[in-house]
Amino acid sequence: MSPSSSSSSSSSSSSPPLMQKRIDCILTMEKDAITVINQTHDHQSFVRYFTTAEPTLKERLAQIIPAKIEEVKQLKAEHGDKIIGTCTVSQAYGGMRSVKSLITETSLLDPEEGIRFRGFTIPECQDKLPKAKGGQEPLPEGILWLLLTGEIPSEAQVQQLSKDLVKRAGLPDFVVSMIKNFPKEMHPMSQLSAAVLALQTNSKFAAAYQEGVKKTQYWESTLEDTLDIVAKLPEIAALIYRTVYKDGKVPAVDANLDWAANFNRMLGFNSHEFDELMRLYLTIHTDHEGGNVSAHATHLVGSALSDPYYSYAAGMCGLAGPLHGLANQEVLSWTLDLQQKIGNKEITNDQLADLVWEGLNAGRVVPGFGHAVLRKTDPRYTCQREFALKHLPNDPLFKLVSQIYDVVPPVLTKQGKTKNPWPNVDAHSGVLLQYYGLKEHNYYTVLFGVSRAIGVLSSLVWDRILTLPIERPKSITTESLVKEFKASK
Ligand SMILES: CC(=O)SCCNC(=O)CCNC(=O)[C@H](O)C(C)(C)COP(=O)(O)OP(=O)(O)OC[C@H]1O[C@@H](n2cnc3c(N)ncnc32)[C@H](O)[C@@H]1OP(=O)(O)O
Ligand SMILES: O=C([O-])CC(=O)C(=O)O
């Protein structure tokens, strides 16, 4: 709590209880101030703390961290030897599905209910997170704050964070010319990862590490890198888009716009309705607990104390796979292909099912369906469907996507292989982007990647706060397993 809000007691009486209250309040403020100085090593923060109503993101984190570190210390001391998961031979060969072995603070996935960001479902986030003026969808800056602190931010905190991101925007010339000189046929995801790696020269964590900063302070420069990367990503992503598909020009960041609206202007779109979609899109794609490929890759590379630029670029290489983030590109190609086969006529569900079977019988997966954890329709699919029902109910491609939703789950169930026949997030994003004129599907995973930065890097900040060690699970050979089981017969 800030001092201005904590010291608002009446001045009329000076009875002992009130006096005691004031003394307690001053003592609390003093304690908070010492925490702020100890954690941020920044006397500016101390001055700001006593002169403004809202702590910055870094200051709020500094206040939260000591209790969380204490909680983890106590948990390890009291329950360090308890078993939270096992791993069978099948799980070791089967992609470690459902083996509980990672700590990720930012979100938790339930197979039936879907994702909760720091305990909040998607509808709760849509309800509680601050919105743009006149808007109804959450601002992604809000979820960045939520994932980092575990707290729903106030409007003022989000505005302050938005302004901070604007200040951090801007790319070095060599990164701009590098992107402009990439061959046009280089996949946008390769361009994104390469551009982020080039920016690594800016890493504040790498510089601090070289200077010998203490382990307990690693999180500060990791947070700085996180905010820098999040601030610079819209321009990187927009420059890739404008160079590959348009005129190569990107306007400067506008200090009066939020992060998502700025991104849209840079991409070349100027529609308030599309801004709303972008805010929702960039919020819901941020995080999906720690075991998905992009989050796990970021965490793994970060565990070697590779800086956030290296770690996030590694995550993006994973997101670029067709079984993970690239599925959203695949979905749109597949849906447009179906639309072309169908032509202008109406098609029955049975006829559509026959077309789905054609792909399955040729050994292909139905993109956008199935999930490694989820066993119900992904709530990220549902909220995008609700957006479509509200804003584009009569769009022909949306109608086809809706018909696919009716047809594919029974087909996959009949095929009997997939554990989850329901759609995931990727089954719906492309149709919305098409509607607002962003038609280049090869580019779609870059949008996913811009959003995912918020989740995986917030998580990396917590890896450093908790001083998690290098990740190094034990691997075994088939030969060693065969020997082991022979011996135990
Ligand atoms: C943001 C995201 O990453 S969401 C996921 C995006 N990816 C996709 O949409 C691609 C299509 N879906 C899939 O390939 C899978 O469902 C995955 C990769 C998401 C999950 O994989 P798994 O956990 O291994 O799924 P599951 O245990 O259900 O797989 C069992 C079998 O069903 C198959 N299967 C799963 N989903 C599908 C699908 N959509 N279409 C056809 N077959 C499928 C698997 O290929 C596997 O077949 P196999 O035994 O011949 O190897
Ligand atoms: O959770 C997963 O494995 C994949 C996914 O949906 C995501 O990363 O968003």
TrEMBL record:
Q: Which residues form the active site?
A: 324, 371, 426
Q: Name one GO molecular function term.
A: acyltransferase activity, acyl groups converted into alkyl on transfer
InterPro entries associated with the record: Citrate_synth-like_lrg_a-sub, Citrate_synth-like_sm_a-sub, Citrate_synthase, Citrate_synthase_AS, Citrate_synthase_euk, Citrate_synthase_sf
What processes does the entry annotate via GO biological process terms?
A: carbohydrate metabolic process; citrate metabolic process; tricarboxylic acid cycle
Q: Which Pfam families does this chain map to?
A: Citrate_synt (PF00285)
Q: Which UniProt keywords apply?
A: Transferase
Matching entries from SUPFAM superfamilies are given as: Citrate synthase (SSF48256)
State the family named in the UniProt similarity comment for this chain: Belongs to the citrate synthase family.
The entry's protein name is Citrate synthase
The organism named in the record is: Cavenderia fasciculata
